[in-house]
Amino acid sequence: MELKEGLEQLEELQRKLYAFRAACSALYLDGVTTAPSDTEQGRGVALGILAGEEHKLMSDPQLGALLEQLWERREALDQVHLRQVEELRRRHARLVRIPAQEYMEYAMLTSQASAVWHQAKEQSDFSLFQPVLEQLVAYNIKFAGYYDPEKAPYDALLQEYERGVDMAALDQFFATLRERLVPVIQAIGAQEQPDDSFLFRHYPLEDQRRFSDYLMEVLRLDRAHCAIGETEHPFTLNFNSQDVRITTKYNPNQVAESMYSVIHEGGHALYELGVDPALDYTCVGGGVSMGVHESQSRFYENLIGRSLPFLQAIYPKMQEIFPQQLGDVTVEQFYRAVNKAQPSLIRIDADELTYSLHVMVRYEIEKQLIGGTLAVADIPQTWNRLYKEYLGVEVPDDRSGCLQDSHWSGGSFGYFPSYALGSAYGVQMLRAMERDIDVWGTVAQGDLSQVNGWLGEKIHRFGSLVEPAQLVRQACGEAFDPVAYTDYLVEKYSRLYNL
Amino acid sequence: MELKEGLEQLEELQRKLYAFRAACSALYLDGVTTAPSDTEQGRGVALGILAGEEHKLMSDPQLGALLEQLWERREALDQVHLRQVEELRRRHARLVRIPAQEYMEYAMLTSQASAVWHQAKEQSDFSLFQPVLEQLVAYNIKFAGYYDPEKAPYDALLQEYERGVDMAALDQFFATLRERLVPVIQAIGAQEQPDDSFLFRHYPLEDQRRFSDYLMEVLRLDRAHCAIGETEHPFTLNFNSQDVRITTKYNPNQVAESMYSVIHEGGHALYELGVDPALDYTCVGGGVSMGVHESQSRFYENLIGRSLPFLQAIYPKMQEIFPQQLGDVTVEQFYRAVNKAQPSLIRIDADELTYSLHVMVRYEIEKQLIGGTLAVADIPQTWNRLYKEYLGVEVPDDRSGCLQDSHWSGGSFGYFPSYALGSAYGVQMLRAMERDIDVWGTVAQGDLSQVNGWLGEKIHRFGSLVEPAQLVRQACGEAFDPVAYTDYLVEKYSRLYNL
Fold first, then answer.
1. Distance from C-alpha of B279 to C-alpha of B261, rounded to nearest angstrom
2. Does A186 lie in the same domain as A41?
3. CB burial class (10 A; 0-12, 13-18, 19+) of residue B115?
4. pLDDT, position A108
5. Number of domains into which chain B is organized
6. CB A264 within 8 A of CB A254
7. What confidence tens digit (pLDDT) does each residue in A331-345 have?
8. Which residues of B touch A42 (CB under 8 A)?
9. Which of A191, B72, B185, B404 makes the best surface tag, with the fewest CB within 10 Å?
10. Residue-by-residue DSSP string for A341-359
11. Is residue A432 a contact partner of residue A376, using CB atoms and an 8 Å limit?
């Protein structure tokens, strides 16, 4: 085979994968936005078939042979093609190691599990979910052995979400967080909380939509390439670097919820919009990992969006849009309100300080579940015990406890740590950025061009060309280190609460 | 091969075709509704690849072999499987007869042609479109020979849009129309026109949206299975019998435009929603032809929607929604206004009476173009001459003349007659319906359940199981005959204009 011909085949395959993914994205997007209510079945049939076609494409032995031939000639490949071959070999190897029968059974199981979990959550009864979860855990332990038999099962799964990260690293990471953050959280418990009642005044949806438009402008999201929609659960969806969608959810009695959704999803969108367009329609044309993605979304949401300079810059416009609701509130009051830290039960509503401890609970449980040292039946009591220990809260029921997240019902074990890692990556990037540019001077002007430019240059443009750990290292000039993150939180919250 | 196994393969193929079509529909729908403006390229790449995959699937020699095996055993097939095999054999045969190279060149040509046509129309200059149109015509003549070398080329193309219809039948059909309708149109020219100025008052969009909701309720369109959206050009799109979308376009200074769009597209939607769900995800699970589809949309739009009993039933609600605009207008005045007949230049804005004559112009030109007796360069002068002859209007420029429709730029030659045929089918169905049920008594009550029920039973539920001509015959109890249509128009407009 000529190298040129092999690379053409490689390109054709990737374009097909792109087309299938775009098709599934469009069907999904339609389903959560404009589709009529009773139309899930037909969409499910189409999505199932497209997933099957993608699986067939990726597990094709001819593809395996092509990838091996290209891999043997890797010395002759440029960086982009080399990364594509690496990535596709990894995906191909992972798929072909799972026996087809097991793969199909597992696909059926996860599609059922979602409905079972929904019902269990509704009835706040973990025992309804337990049998399915036991099967999901068993499959994942087995799959971990297929992915990498030399690794501990949970380490093998972690690779799927954040390559280069293992339990040894995460144990240390979370130990640092626990050690530094738990005392701060406890100390805050004794302090007086700021008044945040004005966040819950009546904020008409039309005004909130105008505010979103303004925020997108401030974030410099180009509306010709990035649309904003409304869904029950906010998300970001990228078709390619020229076509990204974000969604938010408006609550008429809440201004901060949608505000920070837009900024968070906007961070994800800036990442995808910033990928080098030359990588479009290839397997390296999107963000490299969940962790790096969360680093971007949380960077904008928390490090920028919950900073005083940023709020000072946008607050006049906020007051103009919401004169009755915020006319009597100073920006300092607003700043304290959106940075209120209070241990709570629900991860997705958690504040910046306590958030990682919610993640830590899940990490501890997953590690033991996949490690075989915790039975599924014992999840609720372990969950409740850890919430008490780390966050000091009593979990009243399974709905607001171990049934709150959808991840496990989708078969995702090893995903959660990325959320906390992303937050930590972000602070380390901020520190590096502060050495290069006048971050806070420009942010205080409401000008995010330099911040966006730095992240675009150091992170976004690479898409998936550089592995997460290396990307963090080259952007920050040093290996990943959670201390910047814990320092940041301790310092910010000590100041906010006069500790 | 076991028959059972062959039928399973047949089912799998059809589900894949369904999935690809659903994928393309979702991408298309997104593109014309919520996608950001500068995102066409990536969507085009995905759509092109999906079309290529579908082509590969349908032209696969293994599929050909499967279909032949099933065809040989057609005695053993039930009606549904037999129709599926027939339909797929036809599609397969058509594709494999076109050399792959020509198919690709043609696909590229049509995708360019659309942009060229847009530009030519914008500049109102046919000569810009002429070279591309010449190629399109040449390809279609060649393809007609591939489709059916024994037929005259235009007859072969007509089969693609309305099977069973040929030039002999259409010549007679249009001759009848011309003979009966041209005198009426000329007679109306001498009469006083009704006042329709109130249709062009200010109708706020929010109120028009409420009115659309009401119309969908009257049409008995189930919103759990049928959504309404807004696009530049209204259309109906069906994913399957449980999931149909219609769109409309609101003009703040026009009430009838969106009103009749909703009723027209609603008619298409009722057809698709009424197909037997057992046919979902198969090649016979949608409306059988363009002609039958237009029979349904025009049935609701004109025969019901522009009738006095229907307007009397909905007018109180219209006046409630638009009190300032219609409070001083009687339902009889409204009825006359929406039935105003006036020869004009633009087909899609034409009234019920003159509409078919617009179609006839296109038919005459297509017949000669594909027959080789008219050069592309001579289209404008022929067009203008025929508009003068049939409709008595002077065509001032190409934009409002031969460049007004997109069909030819998409490579569709033989499509137009379906519009006129559909109108005629509809009247014949109405006459049969009137023998079975109290059409006007129920419509006058605003109750369309019996009308919908009749069409559901006689037309909708069959999907594509019965060929158009046979479907009309079995629904109406007689072969297609345009006389009912011309009688209806002559009678209606003689009464309206006191001829």
1. 28
2. no
3. exposed
4. 86
5. 1
6. no
7. 999 999 999 999 999
8. 22, 239-240, 242-243, 280-281
9. B72
10. ----S-GGG--TTTHHHHH
11. no
Residue A261 lies in a domain: no
Burial class (CB in 10 A: 0-12, 13-18, 19+), A396: exposed
For residue A440, the model assigns a pLDDT of 98
Q: How far is the C-alpha of B168 from the C-alpha of B157, rounded, in Å?
A: 14
Q: What pLDDT score does A418 carry?
A: 95
Contact residues, chain B, for A54 at CB < 8 Å: none
pLDDT at residue B22 is higher than 90: yes
pLDDT digits (tens, 9 = 90+) for A31-59: 999 999 999 999 999 999 999 999 999 99
Contact A43 B245 (CB under 8 A): no
- Whether residues A87 and A147 share a domain: the answer is no
Q: Answer yes or no: is B425 within a domain.
A: no
Note the pLDDT of residue A2.
87
Q: What number of residues does chain B have?
A: 499
What does DSSP say about strands A226-230 and A236-240: parallel, antiparallel, or unpaired? Answer: unpaired
Which structure tokens are listed for B480?
A: 């297609």
| pLDDT confidence band for B211 (50 / 70 / 90) | very high
**Best A33, A49, A272 residue to mutate vs chain B (most B CBs within 10 Å):** A49
| pLDDT score of A216 more than 90 | yes
**Cα separation of the two ends of chain B:** 68
At residue B242's C-alpha, the angle toward residues B239 and B246, to 5°, is 60
In a domain, A117, yes or no: no
The answer to whether A19 contacts B223, with C-beta atoms less than 8 Å apart, is no
Q: How many CB atoms lie within 10 A of CB B371?
A: 14
Q: Is A33 within 8 Å of B38 when comparing Cβ atoms?
A: no
**Mean pLDDT, rounded, for A476-490:** 96
Domain boundary among A80, A97, A114: A97
Same domain, A83 and A139: no
Report the CATH number at residue A145.
1.10.1370.30
Asked whether residue B492 is assigned to any structural domain, the reply reads: no
- Residue owning tokens 């199932």: A48
B1 has a pLDDT exceeding 80: no
Which pLDDT value is given to residue A381? 98
Tokens of A207: 């005004």
Indicate the residue of A23, A42, A226 with minimum beta-carbon distance to B36.
Answer: A226
**B420-456 pLDDT per residue, tens:** 999 999 999 999 999 999 999 999 999 999 999 999 9
Return phi, psi of residue A150, to 5°: -85, -15
Residues A379 and A499 in one domain: yes
Interface ipTM: 0.93
Specify whether A166 is located in the same domain as A89: no
Domain boundary among A75, A97, A119: A97
Domain range holding A407?
130-204+270-499
**CB nearest to A240's CB, from B22, B42, B243:** B42
Identify whether B352 is a catalytic site residue: no
Residues from chain A that touch B27, judged by Cβ atoms under 8 A, are: 22-23, 26
pLDDT tens, residue by residue, B120-155: 999 999 999 999 999 999 999 999 999 999 999 999
In this prediction the pTM is 0.94
